[in-house]
Amino acid sequence: MISSSLSFPITFFLLGVERLLFGYFYLFTDHFKTLIRNGFFGKQMQSEPLYWKCAMTLGIYAKVIHLLVILEDLRRISSSKYSFMLRFDGETMNIDKIAVFGMMLFFLGQALNIGVFAILGRVGVYFGNEFGYRTPRMSKFPYNSFIKHPQYVGIVGSVWRLYFMVRSNSHLIPWSTCFWYMMSIHILEHPEE
């Protein structure tokens, strides 16, 4: 069940703020540039000549919102029960296989995220192409793997990992995160031609 402090519609929206913001950057790039030049996001951003840096700053704020929603839900879950990778059953230690699976998802997700940032850099990750910077198509890891959208898969995998680790029976947050990233793939990503 979702955190009692937030209703599902509010939680669902808050989980999507980052994707909606990035959709705005992608679809309405010129409008975003105009808002920055006019000081809509504040004087500090208005004085920043690199639009991708402004997008990164706003993206970080949106990611914090996403993280806070997840942490609040995990706090509620962990206050009722929490599972670790190792469980002591009287005389023996047992490995929690679901938690180990969650840990593997986490490491895969983080490897994909780190790989995307390493290969594209911040300019590429934060819509450099759309803002007029040259960011070529990549064919190195993680883009040469079987995973079509490595950063998105990495983020979604990391969220699922957290819920596997606490052995949550509620998966509304991970499924909502999947929804927002699938929408992002559908709207913002174009198949290679």
How far apart, in Å, are the first and last alpha carbons?
42 Å
Question: How does the helix and strand content classify structurally?
Answer: mainly alpha
Domain count: 1
Query: Gyration radius, to the nearest Å?
Result: 19 Å
Number of strands: 2
Strands of the biggest beta sheet: in what spatial order?
Answer: 1-2
How would you state the average pLDDT, rounded?
A: 77
Strand percentage? under 5%
Instruction: Give the helices and strands as they follow along the chain.
Output: HHHHEEHHH
- The residue ranges in which pLDDT falls below 50 over 5 or more consecutive positions are 80-88
The main β sheet shows up as: 2 strands, antiparallel
From the spread of the alpha carbons, the general shape counts as globular
What is the helix content?
55-70%
Q: If helices are DSSP runs of H or I spanning 4 or more residues, what is the number of helices?
A: 7
Could you provide a short overview of the structure?
With 193 residues, the protein is mainly alpha-helical.
